[in-house]
Amino acid sequence: MNGLIEQSVNFFLKKPKTSEKSTALLQTKNDFLAVETPVSLVYNGISHAVMMCSPQDLEDFALGFSLTEGIINQPTDIYGIDVQEVCNGIEVQIELSSRQFMALKEHRRNLTGRTGCGICGTEQLNQVYKNFPKLDRTFRFDVNLLDHCLSTLQENQQLAKQTGATHACAFFDLQGNVLAIREDVGRHVALDKLLGWYAKTDKEQGFILTSSRASYEMVQKAISCRVEMLVAISAATDLAIKMAETHHLTLVGFAREGKGNIYTGKERLIF
């Protein structure tokens, strides 16, 4: 299933002002729209979460979501993933190990997401805040490479270029090379997709660059997969900064050409 569709839309074009009057012309053109579809994550036959997603890289999403939500501890806890189109959306059938499925049933919650909404349906506050071991500091990154990373992210956002309606998360190595990029209408889902990809790799040193803001959940997801650095094009929230500080994550916001706000973890950066 594609992440975009082509559709005819009306648009108006305001003509330059002549004398004291300006006019607008109503016209028709073809436009590309981002597809947003309900995706149900079904574990061992039981629907656990429904999220609104772009319908690609869904195996990566299932793996990343399972990891960041603590449903599994490692990729081998999942025996198989099957993506099935149904009449009103998509079902992702996930075959879970017996041990993890028993744990899931004990802590089960249903999420009916809006656009990548992360805590809808959470039953207790202590399910929102998760405790993880502090991150090790295993590398340093030259911030002078960040301009190249920002332009690379923009160049590789294929859905966003055509629709203007999606977020992207990309993983870069310490030389500024992009290793993977994932897009989605929801920023949390885009990150889960990328972390699902990351979980299947050799965990090369590097960082995540996101086109969105850095909310607490974006930070929490990165920490849960032991990613040491998160760079956001928009701002970070206060809780995201507190969580990053507590867990030794390097968090950068308002990343733009030649500048950025370093909220936490400047020890990993070379200036």
Q: Specify the number of helices.
A: 7
Largest sheet: 6 strands, mixed
The helix content, as a percent range, equals 25-40%
- How does the overall form come out from the CA principal axes? globular
The beta-strand count equals 15
Encode the helix/strand succession as letters. EEEEHEEHEEHHEEHEHEHEEE
Q: What distance lies between the first and last C-alpha atoms, to the nearest angstrom? A: 44 Å
Radius of gyration: 20 Å
Cross-sheet strand order for the largest sheet: 10-9-11-12-13-14
Structural class: alpha/beta
Strand content is 35-45%
- Poorly predicted regions are 110-116
Q: Mean of the pLDDT scores?
A: 90
Task: Based on the model shown, name its key terms.
single chain; 271 residues; alpha/beta; 6-stranded mixed beta sheet; 15 strands; globular
